[in-house]
Amino acid sequence: xxxxxxxxxxxxxxxxxxxxxxxxxxxxxxxxxxxxxxxxxxxxxxxxxxxxxxxxxxxxxxxxxxxxxxxxxxxxxxxxxxxxxxxxxxxxxxxxxxxxxxxxxxxxxxxxxxxxxxxxxxxxxxxxxxxxxxxxxxxxxxxxxxxxxxxxxxxxxxxxxxxxxxxxxxxxxxxxxxxxxxxxxxxxxxxxxxxxxxxxxx
Length: 202
Prior knowledge:
By secondary structure, the chain is of the alpha/beta class. The protein contains eleven helices and four strands. The chain folds into two domains: 106 residues, 3-Layer(aba) Sandwich (Rossmann fold), CATH 3.40.50; 71 residues, Winged helix-like DNA-binding domain superfamily/Winged helix DNA-binding domain (Arc Repressor Mutant, subunit A, Orthogonal Bundle). Helix 4 links the parallel strand 2 and strand 3. Helix 2 runs parallel beside helix 3 and helix 9 packs across helix 10.
């Protein structure tokens, strides 16, 4: 993996042998992206993700695992992961998704993204009071995120605003809903019925 990343021009600042080292290195080195396995000694991947989300919120954690268990996928998102990728993913697809993460986009293959949307597309429940504080424009941003439009550039085009304005709205949404990243925002919006589920394409 290190060879692949470095061959594509990605700087690998450290490698951790377990979840505890991953936490310590992230805290010390403040990387842009953390690739995290789930099955690790001492401190497991999910526990490490939770700790990193609190201690180093600027670091975007992407799970890279062999586990295709839905429970692991959903728990990783709830723990703060920005993406969930399987180890058999083609190199070009992996790099494209990681590039998107660096721009703030969630990293999911289409099949995993469908699983996430299906899991959280439950009957609307009573949303927390913080959701009531969202402005009409912030609801527009939520609608687009759920539709799969996640890059700042594409959001700005759809809303006919600047990318800085999009970043402002996203910061407000994350703050009001007490969430850490866009993947969690999409899951929360679906779970609480804040937006209409995306229609199936024929």
